Amino acid sequence: MDGHRIHINCMGAGDECAYTFAVQLQQIGTAVTATTTDTFDLTSEDFFLVPDRSLNYTDEKGNHIFLNIPGQMIYRDTTTLQFTFTGLFFSETAAYSNN
User: Fold this and answer.
1) Sequential pLDDT tens for the chain (99 residues)
2) Please, are residues 90 and 66 in contact by the beta-carbon 8 Å criterion?
């Protein structure tokens, strides 16, 4: 910011973060998206730089799988004020190293 490096929650390298926020998952065919459910839990900014991430996930049948989020820049929807992550996919192993 203004030519200086600063920390913004989850916007960059690293594999340990205690920061949490809620999303609603939607799957249409093989396309999976996640939309934030609280307006400012993720950030008060109008954008968010998402690095590649693989998250432990338990599906509705109790199976332990991974929800994989490809790196992307997401922008706040001007009407709903929420963020939507796109291109998500599930797998039995982590697709990303989270580093």
Assistant:
1) 566 655 565 655 555 565 677 899 999 988 999 999 988 888 888 988 888 889 998 888 999 999 999 999 999 999 999 999 999 999 999 999 877
2) yes
- By CB neighbour count within 10 A (0-12 exposed, 13-18 middle, 19+ buried), where does 53 fall? buried
DSSP string, 23-36: EEEEEETTEEEEEE
Note the pTM of the prediction, 2 decimals: 0.77
- Cα angle value 97/25/33 (rounded, 5°): 70
Residues 51, 25: Cα–Cα separation, whole Å: 18
Longest dimension (CA), the chain: 48
| β-pair type (23-28, 72-75) | unpaired
Question: Distance (Å, rounded) from C-alpha 61 to C-alpha 63?
Answer: 6
The DSSP secondary structure of 29-56, one letter per residue, reads: TTEEEEEESSSSSS-SSSEEEEPPEEEE
